């Protein structure tokens, strides 16, 4: 096997840690949970280790919606 074939490919739609996503949106964790309770926040997934992650495409779509509004 060559080195190129052993390299891991980056996923087409990577997972972003919730803290990084909140920094990009510019809100606190408390605001995120308030938005989530109201059905406004973007969807996140809980990993088996308990960490929360958001798909890059979901974050980008949410940010685009904020710019339009």
From TrEMBL:
InterPro entries: DNA-bd_dom_put_sf, HTH_17. Residues 25-64 form the Helix-turn-helix domain. It holds the Pfam family HTH_17. This is Helix-turn-helix domain-containing protein. It comes from Streptomyces gottesmaniae.
């Amino acid at each position: 096997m060559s080195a190129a074939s052993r390299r891991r490919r980056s996923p087409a739609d990577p997972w972003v840690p919730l803290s990084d996503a909140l920094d990009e949106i510019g809100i606190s964790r408390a605001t995120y949970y308030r938005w989530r309770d109201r059905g406004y926040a973007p969807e996140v997934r809980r990993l088996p280790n308990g960490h929360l992650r958001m798909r890059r495409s979901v974050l980008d779509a949410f940010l685009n919606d904020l710019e339009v509004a």
